[in-house]
Write a structure and sequence with these properties.
about 270 residues; binds S-adenosylmethionine; alpha/beta; 9 helices
């Protein structure tokens, strides 16, 4: 299927792993500040990738027991190493497709899924599969970005065109880089209760050098830059225009630049039986 390891638009090479780490590192507080699981609770992290979120989950909820799954064996290996490196012992890993989870119904108290629904061709089906392994009354937490929420100074048509290439390539791979705005309808349609969505805006100017480096440069712009060859091969844009767009994105990281992006975090409950 299109969300398989081969169809993953960002690829699995080391620069992508580094990008996800930078992303997690610069956004930990914004995305995780209100997520903590009770001692003894069982939590499924679906699509853990290289463990960028796993380490924060394990650290913030040391008494919870995490099962972190991903379809990619290579990513799981990195995730395992990363969790071992911080000395956490509350995470078990398994290679699995979230559409065919090897767990009994109602196995988990909570489900956590971050930056994964944007890559699956049928997020409704994915949520149904996650709901099935969640206990009645258990919570699901979903975090997604939305590239349509990107605006910056100085503004640049070329930068918007380069971003649009990434959005289009992700669409062609079966994903949706604009999925953040859809979390409420998605979770509601999946029959979760008490759906609550909170937008988490990242605001970056040069008074926040950690975010300039960790988010504007190494996360967002690096991600767009990473689709250069694919965008050119698909003839979505010519090289000069794409490269101008990337230069303009880096330009927003200079002293007078500003960069804004909004993530969406949804929390909802599995309905009681
Ligand atoms: C952008 S990464 C996010 C990783 C991690 N959650 C994070 O926030 O850093 C998306 C991950 O979803 C995984 N994935 C995509 N489709 C999947 C599926 N059907 N089942 C399990 N994992 C999947 C990919 O292998 C990849 O590791």
């Amino acid at each position: 299927m299109a969300s398989s390891a081969n169809g993953y638009v960002h690829g699995y090479h080391s620069r992508e792993a580094e990008r996800l780490t930078d992303q997690a590192g610069s956004l930990v507080e914004l995305l995780h500040c209100d997520t903590a699981y009770a001692d003894g609770s069982r939590v499924l992290e679906a699509g853990c990738g290289t463990g960028a979120q796993t380490v924060t989950l394990a650290r913030n909820s040391p008494g919870a027991r995490f099962t972190s799954i991903d379809i990619s064996a290579g990513s799981l290996e990195e995730a395992r190493a990363r969790v071992t490196a911080i000395g956490a012992t509350n995470v078990a890993f398994a290679q699995a497709d979230l559409h065919a989870l090897p767990f009994a119904a109602a196995s988990f108290d909570h489900v956590f899924v971050c930056f994964v629904l944007e890559h699956v061709p049928d997020p409704d089906a994915a949520l149904a599969c996650l709901s099935a392994v969640l206990k009645p009354g258990g919570t699901i937490t979903v975090i997604e970005g939305d590239h349509g929420s990107t605006y910056f100074h100085p503004d640049s048509d070329a930068a918007h065109r380069a971003i649009a290439c990434q959005v289009e390539l992700q669409r062609r791979a079966g994903g949706n880089a604009l999925i953040g705005r859809e979390l409420y309808p998605l979770l509601t349609r999946a029959r979760f209760d008490a759906v609550s969505i909170s937008p988490r805006m990242v605001y970056v100017d040069s008074s926040r050098p950690r975010l300039v480096e960790g988010f504007t440069r190494r996360t967002f712009t690096a991600m767009i830059e990473g689709v250069r060859e694919a965008a050119l091969a698909a003839k979505l844009i010519d090289a000069a225009a794409f490269d101008q767009g990337i230069r303009d994105l880096y330009r927003t990281a200079e002293a007078d630049g500003v960069f804004c992006y909004t993530f969406f975090k949804g929390v909802a409950h599995n309905p009681p039986i």
